[in-house]
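ABC transporter permease (Actinokineospora globicatena), 248 aa
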Amino acid sequence: MSVLNAERIKLLSTRSPWWCALLAVALPVGLTALIASQAQIDPGDNGGSVQVTQMLASLGRAVVMVMAALSVTSEYRFGTIRSTFQAVPHRTTALLAKTVVTAIPAMLIGAVVGFGSWAVFRAINSFPGLALDSAEDWRAVAGQIVVYGITAVLALGVGILIRQTAGAVAVLLVYALLVEGLVGLIPKIGDDIQHWLPFFAADRFLGLQAGPPVDDLPLGPWGYLAYFAAVAAVVLTAGILSAQRRDA
């Protein structure tokens, strides 16, 4: 518990996590409000769907990745990771505590983004189709909590592996915002590869990813969530093993 408390103090006593949290909420919720004010939804479609309100949640997710990577790369940059490992010689314990302390704020941000985007969109366009009437609707909104938390774990693992802030942030953002989308353009095999990429899996769980019906995919929504979590766990494990073998 003392290790968790120490990591909480380190995370919340710096400005960057607060600014990242503010930006992670303001970007998707603010732009969702802007889009909702200009939206032209066909009333014959019952006013659209709940998934429409979550289309910009990936922007907040990108900022959460930056926040999670910074939580560990900044320690390597300023050398405070050495003090952490001296105070907690078992490095796995220290890094797992950092993971928990980083994932919880990310989940809170996910809750605000998910329900905030939905509430703002519905307040501007109060169509009946935007009500949370089904399990799929709840998964699209409340599922942001889990997805944001897993995303933070994945980004933290990348940060431990790379150690440098610029490199870790560049890898995370380029991959999430560019590479996954381009993989689908590879002739013949692109779509098959894309079905196994982590953020495709996250969006499929949320019901946001355009493409073939779920029945035509290798996994269902909850299977894709488990796959996304497994990828994050593998990356984090690789990072922890790397930290144990390399000098701080």
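The longest helix spans residues 91-124. The CA atoms of residues 66 and 170 lie 9 Å apart. ok done for today
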